[in-house]
Amino acid sequence: MSERRPRRAAQAVARHAARCRLHTLALRAIPLGLVLGGLATAPAAFAATPAADPGAAAASTTADAAKAYDIPAGPLGTALSNFAVQAGVSVQLDPHLVDGLNTRGLRGNYTVHGGFSALLAGSNLEIAQSTPGVWFVRPRSAQSAAADDASTLPAVTVAGQTDNAYGPTDGLVAKWSSTATKTGTPIVETPQSISVVTRDQMNQQNAQTLNAAVRYEAGVTPETRGSVATRYDMLNVRGFSADTYWNGLKQIGNGMYSTPQVDPYLMDRIEVLRGPTSVLYGQAQAGGLLNQESKLPTVTSTHELGVEFGNYRHQQLQADFSGPIAGDQHYLYRFTAIARQEDGQVESTRNERIAVAPSFTWRPDDKTSLTVYALYQRDPASTSYGSVPSVGTAIYDPLGTIARNFYDGEESFERFSRTQEALGLKFEHRLNDTWQVRSNARYYHISQDYRSVYGSGLEADGYTLDRASIASYEQLNSFAIDNQVEGNFSTGPVDHTVLAGFDYQHFGTNYATGYGSAPSINVFDPVYGADIDMPALTKTHATSNQYGIYAQDQLRYKKVLMTLGVRQDWANTTTRDVTDNGTPQWQNNHAFTWRGGLTYLFDNGVAPYFSYSESFAPQSGTDINGKAFDPERGHQYELGIKFQPKRYNALFTAAIFDLTRKNLLTTDLANPNYQTEAGEARSRGLELEAKLSLTKSLDVSASYTYLNTVYTKDNSGLQGKHLAAIPSNQASLWAYYTIHGGPLAGLSLGGGGRYTGATYSTDNSFEVRSFFLVDASLRYDLGYAIPRMKGAELYVNAQNLLNKTYVASCYYGNWCAYGYGRQVFAGMNYRW
């Protein structure tokens, strides 16, 4: 962040202070909330002017009598403005210093200096006084930092660290989230379990899929289809399926196989919200959701180019550029792109991708922002969607072990080609100090061509694999919009953050799908090249709409926080067999859901909480009487504790929960050819997670998960059995250390381990063995050795460093999937 620090006398500061008030309306590029009430904003050159005698100025404030203040959490610029109004003083600053920063607010008795300092806590900024009644914000000086370090040990605040609920976070420790409440709330104040995977963590671990990005998060079981299904983000949260969101809107994929997937390189953060989420998001899976937040335009100019190579003939290029357009901070841009090609771990398969994500932000004034973003992602190929039999992999076979790269398909028939295009917008406008409105909308298109030969069952001889074929051609269009109004006000001693919204989701899809036969194959000595007939295709058209209204109130009384939310949804789906010109089948559902939570904030950063939340998900089909199935319902009780230390940068979370899914479809015992809504499944467990930046050199992430997932009601023989592919125990540890001094300065070393306990097959007839995997990272900043190479970085990452062969899961019947073998990536990034 650039700074201009000309030397001026304190008298010049006083002369210009009044004139700066007249300039306020001209400073159109100042961030939201900096030009409110009595805020006097100076030009950059003036705002950064040091006080004539900061020490004396600070001393003078100590004599000021403390008075009561009430400043809500939110954007730092707005909070500083509100405090200045209540204190009857003026505050001056370079607006770029607070752009994108938030504060927890304050309530209580403070002096002027103490109040400003409390609002700026953790921002790497400080307050100083120029003349009586005139204060200014500046970057925290080295002298102040040293004094703070001497009085508060250990000193572990990372210089320049930023944390933003709606954007990037420096380091591994994110303390704000927008996903859990849609209001931008500190994680410690959120009465539901949530984790944030930051951009820095993804870079350290070189995560190239969504599954890889969340491998170290508590409660998440990634890669439930092992290494083969890279075309889909297949994972579970708390033992159940979870939805994927992008920039706060659901990734709608309700065709046969046309499911959205956006490359993680395009993201600034990934937020994992555990448990039912319907009160804010409508129809949803009970496990939770993963919200991926895009890299969007920034005020500070950034540029990155990178190249990467690896085993499996991996090759990758990436680029990321952002900043003001022609130096005008009314207009910001970002352009992010990645191109990748590599062989799949399964023989005869390949991954190919090119993704481009441009975005543009217009900020006409300090109260308004409009961001438009787009995506074009082309996946001409995406490994295999096949499997391996359980015998010879998870179960001992005297004939031998099936190779990890075994391919159950036919290369001449295999095809997966997907094109995704999206256009979205994010709009926000602050009406006044109390109210603001937001709108978030996106159009999404998927075009997909899929053909495959797959294994359908192993013969009794132990080596002959029966096979079948499938073909599907799909077009899917979806639209989603979420309109919100947020208010921050008080009623007596109670503070409120109120949210109300209306959202709408629509999708329409046309798909032609067919199934056929294919010759069998020997799993130990496969011979390929068989002629595969194209299956006969059935054409289907389907549309769906969901309307929802919701309201939420986050109440604060002293140290007690209560979160209450309610929602009503209406959903309908129409499906028609176009081939036979069939009669449309209608499905109409409506559901009321609610959430409640209670949190107590201790002064030392400990925050115990309790919450209840609900979900619903429509189900297609009818029972024997022609009655449409009721939606699946989920409800969860969660008791937890969060700890955000005051003396070092860390966040610790612990939660126990009881999560139940009801109305699951199962066999109708009286009519076995039909289904009924008599099924039920339950997940109970414990999650522990810690993210720490112990010093400016060391980052640590650790987690442990215990899950007990069972079918509590079922008519097909699963009652009392464990859910397939869900381990009872998971644990992970990641550490990353950067050397800043000495002959090895610029070198970073990272390492981690991931343990996944034993899992069950669908009918619990056998177990899949546990496994432990090791990851490692080595990076070097060339600028330390060669100053002219400042910004250039070399790196090597290894995932499953020891190249362990393991079965990731057996997820359906006797179908299983091997996990990733060793992946090694080496590359260079250049940033300026």
Can you walk through the features of this model?
The strands form nine sheets. This protein has a 22-stranded antiparallel β-barrel. The N terminus is likely disordered. Helix 4 runs antiparallel to helix 5. By secondary structure, it is mostly beta strands. 9% of the residues lie in helices and 52% in strands. The protein folds into two domains: 142 residues, Phage tail protein beta-alpha-beta fold, CATH 3.55.50; 512 residues, Maltoporin, Chain A (Beta Barrel). The chain contains nine helices and 44 strands.
Features:
832 residues, mainly beta, Phage tail protein beta-alpha-beta fold, Maltoporin, Chain A, 2 domains, 22-stranded antiparallel beta barrel, 5-stranded mixed sheet, 9% helix, globular, disordered N terminus
Secondary-structure map:
Elements: H1 10-23, H2 44-47, H3 54-62, E1 67-71, E2 74-75, H4 76-87, E3 90-92, E4 102-103, E5 106-110, H5 112-120, E6 125-131, E7 134-139, H6 142-151, E8 176-177, E9 185-186, E10 194-198, H7 199-205, H8 210-213, E11 220-221, E12 236-237, E13 240-241, E14 243-246, E15 249-250, E16 267-274, H9 278-281, E17 288-294, E18 302-310, E19 314-325, E20 328-343, E21 350-365, E22 368-382, E23 388-389, E24 415-430, E25 435-458, E26 464-491, E27 494-522, E28 538-557, E29 560-577, E30 585-600, E31 606-617, E32 632-643, E33 649-668, E34 671-693, E35 698-713, E36 729-738, E37 747-756, E38 759-760, E39 767-768, E40 771-781, E41 792-799, E42 807-812, E43 815-818, E44 823-831
Parallel strand pairs: 3-7, 14-17
Antiparallel strand pairs: 1-5, 2-4, 6-7, 8-9, 10-16, 11-12, 12-13, 14-15, 16-17, 18-19, 18-44, 19-20, 20-21, 21-22, 22-24, 23-43, 24-25, 25-26, 26-27, 27-28, 28-29, 29-30, 30-31, 31-32, 32-33, 33-34, 34-35, 35-36, 36-37, 37-40, 38-39, 40-41, 41-44, 42-43
Helix pairs in contact: 4-5
